Amino acid sequence: MPLLGGIRPPIAVLCVLILALAGLTAQVLGPGSDPVVPKAVLSSQQHYAEDGAIALRASIDERVTDLRRTAAALNAGKPAEPEDVLSDLGRTYQKWTGTTVVDLESGDVLAARGERIPLAWLDKDVLTGKSALLPRMVRLETGDVRLMTMALLDRKDGPQQLLIASNSLSVPPITLGPFRTMAVAARGGEVLATAGFEQSEALNSDQQRQELEFLQKQMSDLSAQAAERAEEHPVTAKQPGSRGYPGVSGTLTGGEYNGRVVSAGYASLASSDPEEKDSVAAGLGLTVVAMLPVVAEQSGSTGRELYGLIAAGALVVLGLLAAGFLWARVQRPLLRLFLESRRLARGDLTRPVGTFRGGEAARVGNALERLRGQLGGPGAPDGPGGTDGGGGTRRAGRTRFGIRMQLVLTAVLLLLWCVPVGLLLNRTDDSVSVPATMVNDQRDRTDLVSDRVRRALNEAQADLVSTSRLVDVSDRDATESVLEDALRKHTRYAALYVVGADGEVAARAGGDPHDWSDGKDLPLVRVSGEGGKRPVVQAGAPVPEEKGVTLVGEVRIEFLNSLLKRPGLGEVRVADAKGRTLAASNGFLAFEELPREALTDLVRAAGVRVGAGPVENGLLLRDGGNVTVAAAAPFSGGGVAADAGWTVVSWQDADRFQITAYEREDRSVLAGLLGLAAIVVCLGWVHLVVARPLRALATSAEKLADGDLKAVLYPTYHDEVGAVVRSLELIRQQLQARRQQQPRRTAEPRPAEPRPTEPRPGEPRLGAGGR
């Protein structure tokens, strides 16, 4: 009879899963050579390229926004001469290589500053249509490429003028670290700018010059590959479910020279939030490539490589033992019960029911033997020729070693492999070797985030300087209108307000203002709000021609937190000079201390001035079996934010890196979890489909053997247990019919009544009413 379900499928599935897991264990934990370049190093170069792309995109977008904002302010303000416009623009923003004001009607140059801007590229397509006034990349006569940004000056009662600003498409001014180079590539793979290469004139030997030529050629080839891959859609280019950088990014591996292999990461410019805001820079088709030669790993044989093959063989042996145990103690007794019950249901009562070792199978077998006697089987209990009428010789109590205990023993047998493999095999400690590149990259990327936050605060203060020119203290309504418009355009602010010389708020927009003291020794970017729920970061700009009046903007903490979130960098925080937290990539408490004393010491050490100023530091912390990579980078460089004395500190556990030792440990844990999952699935399957119905079957069979013929037996599943239940139901019906067909015992006859005697002669006869 074909049986669907039952005990056979879970045992077969368990065998298949064990063999598959053994093969997977032998493959991922067995002998294999280590990669020439660790995956952690390649991922770090990818994250570095993403950071560079973010910095370049933010720089280009900020330049476009600043130029358009300046033009809008000039259009709304008083008329100014072109020379004065360029002078004010140069004093406020020192970011353009050249600026020009052109009369649109005549095409004449009205004013120019800095580098000469060619105008041959200006045509109708640039000034009209959907792409009007969008930034353009223009190649100069010298061969250099410049990014041209445009804004329209359209004052009332005045001619239309075009404000043009040019800047070079240079590599973002970020810390590259030793031996790293970076390039900006256009569509088609043309390298527009590079940084990090040494000048050939400064090299001392021909071998160094040959290495430089090799690296430059590698950068050209890798840039062409990166530009081609950057043309893919960000969704299809990534693995399913992966998040992080919104654009296209990845890793590349180049050639080898003098024992060092070229590793590279690339990232296309993409909007920070494509769903909410489009990026002008993202439409330029630029790609940032970060390249770093690393020492090739020597893939040697280690003693741990054989552990995978040994673990796979042990799993096969234990799996076969577990499957054999289930076959011998569960499957065979069930099949025997099925055959015995079917034989009795068909009326074959000549042979006694076979004996079983114990458990539910023995209980059902004893009940079948008693039922055979009740059906009239010879030599059976409760039957003719039986040993006793009560069935004492084959009655069996409830044995403790049932099917559930057998499943537990099978699980314990398999756990003898899962627990050691998952918890003991390939375990790591604080002696794991972490590549020095990872420590250097953690330090350099932390310095990049620090520079990013510092520039954002400088931009916030520069926006306040630009907005302060529109403030009219005498007209409160007009000033609040200007502040509300600025607050609506700049989401980085939580509140804007004008503070007078007496400290009173003259006009405000947004949230509640906080105290602002105008001291000479106080920086224009500061923090307050100690004792509150969140720090208050303030930036100020003096209002022109108004002594003691300051325009103050409160920077949202959420804005600073968003600048700190970078994949592959771990936990990132902004700390003040005392090591207290001001912003973090994850949740934090206002002004809380750093979680480790070593991090606080690192922040203090980073703030010590060495030479021209404080420098970034990186450490590898080994404590209690854990390895942590930490770095701290103080604010350095230009701008008002450099005087705040803040430091960006980051740290992450080394087990997050894709290092071979940690990967083997993770794979071992995964193998143990997969084995545990196979145990739960297969043995849970047996428990639900076989064990529970079999225990119910044993109880029903014993009740039926004790004479309970009223309860109808229904099979739960159409399998071995269900077949036995159906046979018991047939036996119950036979016993019920047998009881009904038994002849009734005849009742005993009543005693005969005495017959009346005849009267003797001479005696009177009694009449009907006489004596």
The tally of helices reads: 15
CATH class of the domain at 437-649: Alpha Beta
Q: Please tell me what the overall shape is.
A: elongated
Return residue spans where pLDDT drops below 50 for at least 5 consecutive residues: 384-398, 744-748, 764-771
Largest sheet, spatial ordering of strands: 2-1-5-4-3
Second CATH tier, the architecture of the domain at 437-649? 2-Layer Sandwich
Q: How much beta, percentage-wise?
A: 15-25%
Pfam families: HAMP
Protein name: HAMP domain-containing protein
Domain HAMP: 328-375, 688-740
Biased composition (Low complexity): 735-744
Keywords for this entry:
771 residues; Beta-Lactamase; five-stranded antiparallel β-sheet; elongated
Structure description:
- The chain is of the alpha+beta class and 771 residues long.
- It contains 15 helices and 20 strands.
- A 5-stranded antiparallel β-sheet has the order 2-1-5-4-3. It has a 5-stranded antiparallel β-sheet with strand order 7-6-10-9-8.
- α1 (8-29) packs antiparallel against α7 (306-345).
- The longest helix is centred in the C-terminal third of the chain and has 46 residues, at 660-705.
- Mean pLDDT is 83; it is low at 384-398, 744-748 and 764-771.
